[in-house]
Amino acid sequence: MQDAIRKMLKERNAVMLAHNYQPPEIQDLADMCGDSLELSIRAADTDAEVIVFCGVHFMAESASILSPDKTVLLPRSEAGCPMADMITAEALQARKRELPDMPVVTYVNSPATVKALSTICCTSANALEVVESLDADELLMTPDRNLARNTAKRTDKKIHLWDGCCPIHDRLTAADVEAVRKAHPDAVFMAHPECRPEVIEMADAALSTSGMIRFAGESDATEFIVGTEVGLIYPLAQKYPGKTFYPASDKMICPDMKVITPKDILTCLQEMSGQVKVPEEIRVPALAAVERMIALSR
Ligand code: 13P
Ligand code: SF4
Q: What sections of the sequence does the record tag as coiled-coil (predicted)?
């Protein structure tokens, strides 16, 4: 199966990307692993004609936004993100009408149609920098209320919340953290900013998935509690065999991140099925919001 996939990737001049939460067999097959935005940015820089995105729908959309001339394939169309589904363009338009005029900051884990209505995008790693860059004292942050609350604690600006969340990260409670810390008293606790504020308060570091991979490599510690989707344990253990990684909770499994199999990848390459293409009238304003964010880190 692996050989057949590599052969088809070559035949189609395709690059295979896998998010850090994908199952081990998918990460092992991929040309690049990483967080959603860094994968899309790196894929745009390749001369591949086809991008096979092993992740969820909003990630394939981001790849399409940044690479309009490439064909983007999502091997299983039902791989979605419950948080991205907690907002729609219509609902955002209605909320904007209720609020005074203010910028809208939208987390990349969102539909392209919502990015298109936003002032600027953010990731879990740069949310504070994005908020601070705005020439406004008040803003609306969508769709993750936890990322918004965690950012609000670190800025003087007033952040209006959208009532969405990642059900997988929101599931981690302070009691879970107390229990896992008791079991591993010497471990450093890394938490993802999609976790609840009370969990982030207990963390030694709040980091995106790729941020956790870098941090674990740079830290002198040898034991870590990983406060994000359990799939991240695999790349951490692969990269740092001398260190030990404990899941903060074994409840933190994202079913949408586990649906794609090697067989699905082969089939989508053979049939060129599962294409995700953001229409130009949405892509152009969505790209503007993404590029405003990217420009901040240049
Ligand atoms: P990052 O990989 O950008 O940290 O995002 C986490 C996540 O929940 C992706 O779905
Ligand atoms: Fe969405 Fe959360 Fe799954 Fe990431 S882990 S895809 S944010 S539901």
A: none
* Closest C-alpha to 208, from 285, 270, 287, 147: 147
Bond into 143 cis (ω within 30): yes
Q: Are strands 138-142 and 104-107 parallel, antiparallel or unpaired?
A: parallel
Considering every ligand atom, which ligand is closest to the CA of 57? 2
Query: What pLDDT is attached to residue 39?
Result: 86
pLDDT at 23: 97
Produce one character per residue of 102-117: b if its CB has 16 or more CB atoms within 10 Å, e if not. Answer: bbbbbbbbbbbbbbbb
**Right CATH for 2-81+257-277 from 3.40.50.10800, 3.60.21.10, 3.10.20.10, 3.90.550.10:** 3.40.50.10800
Place of tokens 């209320």: 145
Q: Which pLDDT value is given to residue 298?
A: 66
Apex CA 15: angle with CA 10 and CA 18, to 5°? 130
If one residue of 209, 233, 256 were mutated to test the ligand 1 pocket, choosing by the most ligand atoms within 8 A of its CB, it would be 209
